[in-house]
Amino acid sequence: MRxxxxxxxxxxxxxxxxxxxxxxxxxLLLAYEVARSQHTSQSFPFTISSTEQGNLxxxxxxxxxxxxxxxxxxxxxKHRLWCExxxxxxxxxxxxxxxxxxxxxxxxxxxxxHYQPPEITYRLEYRFQLIDNRDGYFEVVxxxxxxxxxxxxxxxxxxxxxxxxxxxxxxxxxxxxSFISRAATYSYLNTLGRNKVGFSxxxxxxxxxxxxxxGVKGVIERNVMRYFLALVSYLQAEKHVxxxxxxxxxxxxxxxxxxYHRQLYEYEEETYVQAKQKEYLNQRKLQLDxxxxxxxxxxxxx
Length: 302
Prior knowledge:
Low-confidence stretches: 1-11, 13-22
CATH superfamily: START domain
Mean pLDDT: 90
Strand order of the largest sheet: 1-2-8-7-6-5-4-3
Strand content: 25-35%
Largest sheet: 8 strands, antiparallel
Helix content: 40-55%
Structural class: alpha+beta
Shape: globular
Number of helices: 9
CATH architecture: 2-Layer Sandwich
């Protein structure tokens, strides 16, 4: 099974260099069919894999989701709508968009898992790139050059293809660690996170006793799954912006994570919902301020 995970990761790594591949949709389909052929009744309903090469830490998750490809493209091709689900992640305190030098930028305010106002969090600036948006293949890449604790080279990478009236989606996440971030991570893993695990199987696993990866690979697998479940919860929601529907979306995301309680549980549902409702109000205020400034610039320029 571990060899299958590595094989799928290799396929997805190739498709991340879309300019070098004539038909990336075929590679994504192959990755999904290989993964599906290996699923058992004990498997997760997705394939997940992670790698640590030097300071580069990466994870990919692959799954068929019950969302039409048309709806997937409709929402994910619009950069502004990404902030409606990225904020569901425990560590994202706000998400806003703006234009910088003709490019769309998503600014994520990253912090601790509990409530924090955005002004005391770390600001990551992701460049949003819609690489492909065809009838048979979709791809978005978001890159941020730097992050907290001297980390660098952040990337969020989404690929999708239509499949039997639904959508096969791959989500990749990677960044480059620093000496400072490694020290902070290992401190966490030796204290609060000492019993945390990821989703893929460790090399020491057996048929009778599955052993999940731990350490930094467990950390990035939990992170990529939180983003993945946020995206899927958002796409399955009927509405996306009204306060009541946002609360429903928060509950949907929380309950989705509870399917993987061992890996993803942090605190109770109502604690999460109350914190995120406050953070969402902060987000809307920040975005309104940005929109007013950009409208003023347009008036002056016009």
